[in-house]
Amino acid sequence: MKHASPPGRTARVAMAMVLSGLLMASAQASPEDWPRGHYPLPEEGNLVGEVYTVIADQDDTLIDIGHEHGIGYEAMVRANPDISIWYPGEGTEVVVPGQFILPEGPREGVVVNVAEMRLYYYPPSQEGEPDKVETYPIAVGRMDWKTPLGTTRITEKVEDPAWYPPASIRREHAEAGDPLPGVVPPGPDNPLGNHKMRLGIPGYLIHGTNKPEGVGMRVTHGCIRMLPEDIEALFPRLPVGTQVTLINETFKLGWTDGVLHVQAYPYLDEDDGTSIERVTHALEKVDAAIEGLDYPVDYARLRDVVEVPGGMPVALQASEAPEPDVMPETLYDRLELIAAEPTFYDRLHGES
C-alpha cells in the first residue's frame, strides 16, 4: 500500500475514466457497493459510516491503512494511540474511525470542516436515486498559516498545474536554507499534485499533493490538500461555481435510532477557549438538542468527550435516568453536576 509518485498523464486519464465509471455505476448500485466514503443521506438522524477494525499486514503503516479506508493521519493516531505509526505489525488489529456526524448547515456543494480535517461533498440530487454525501480526509493550514473560514466558490480548475510560490513562502524556504524557484512545473516535485481548484478567497486552493502522508495533518500554508486519488475522483464533478463552505466545528452532535451522539476534535488554537468554556459550549448545544425531550444525558461522558476529544462519535445516553428530584434543571445545575464528577484523568489514575 505504498504511495508511488503521481502517474503520468496517460495513466491518469485512464484512472479518471475508471473512477468516473465506478462513480456512475455506484449510482445504480446498492449503498453497500458504493466507493469508500460514499454514503446515502440518512432519512432520520445525521450519522453516516461506522467504526470498524482491520488486521494489519506485515508491510503496512498506520498511514497506509488510513488512506486505504479514507482516514487521515491525526484521526488514525487518535483512534490507535498504542500502535506504532510506522510498523503496526502483522496481525495487529487497527481501529478505522469511519463514522461521522454530518456538519451543521446547508447540505450543498462542498463543506470543509477545518477542525475535523475532512471535506464533505453533497452531489446534486438525481431523480430516482437516493441523496448522498461523500467525505474525504484533507490537510489544512498550520497554526501560522490558517485555513480561512466562510462561504466561497470554485472560480478556476487546472489540471497539471504549475506552482508559483508566493513571496512569503519563498522567503520562508530561503530562511530555512531550502530556496524555491520562481515556478515549479508540473511533475512529481510539484506540491500541488496533478489538480488544483482555485477558491474565491484570494490565494487559497483545493489541490492534490506529492506528499500524501501529510493528509490529515496541519501542514499546509492555508490551502486544502487532498489525496491524489480523492481529488482525481472529485475534480471532474465539481464545476466552476460550486459552493464551498469552510467551517471550524470542533463539537458536533447528531441523532441515530433515537440516541444522541457527540463528536469532538481538538481546538486549533489554545486561545479558542478554556476547558470550562468548551464544556459550557457543549452543554448549550446538548440542551438545545434535547429541549422538550425526556432524554437522560450522561454528563460525565460528555465531559470526557470535551476534555479528551477522540474524534469518534460517542453516545450520550445514560444507562439509567437520574431520579426526578436530582435532575439538573439549568445550565448551571449541569455544570455543577459535571464539576462534581471525577475527570477522565482522575479516573485513569484511580483518584476520586
Question: What would you note in describing this structure?
Answer:
The active site is at residues 207, 223. With 352 residues, the protein is of the alpha+beta class. Among the domains are: 103-247, L,D-transpeptidase catalytic domain-like (Beta Barrel); 251-348, no CATH class. It is 26% helix and 24% strand. The protein has nine helices and 15 strands. The strands form three sheets. It has an eight-stranded mixed beta barrel with strand order 4-5-6-11-9-8-7-12. The protein has a three-stranded antiparallel sheet with strand order 13-14-15. It has a two-stranded antiparallel ribbon with strand order 2-3. Strand 4 and strand 5 (118-122) form a beta hairpin. Residues 1-16 and 343-352 have low confidence and may be disordered.
Name of the level-1 CATH class of one domain: Mainly Beta
Beta-strand percentage range: 15-25%
H/E topology pattern: HEEHHEEEEEHEEEEHEEEHHEHH
What would CATH call the architecture of one domain?
Beta Barrel
Alpha plus pi helix count: 9
Can you tell me the CATH superfamily of one domain?
L,D-transpeptidase catalytic domain-like
How far apart the termini lie comes to 46 Å
In terms of per-residue confidence, which ranges show pLDDT below 50 for 5 or more consecutive residues?
A: 1-16, 343-352
Count all strands and give the number.
15
Shape: globular
CATH topology of one domain: L,D-transpeptidase catalytic domain-like
* Average pLDDT metric: 84
Proportion of helical residues: 25-40%
Major β-sheet, in short? 8 strands, mixed, barrel
C-alpha Rg, in Å?
Answer: 22 Å
| Sheet with the most strands: spatial strand order | 4-5-6-11-9-8-7-12
Give the class from helix and strand content and strand pairing.
alpha+beta
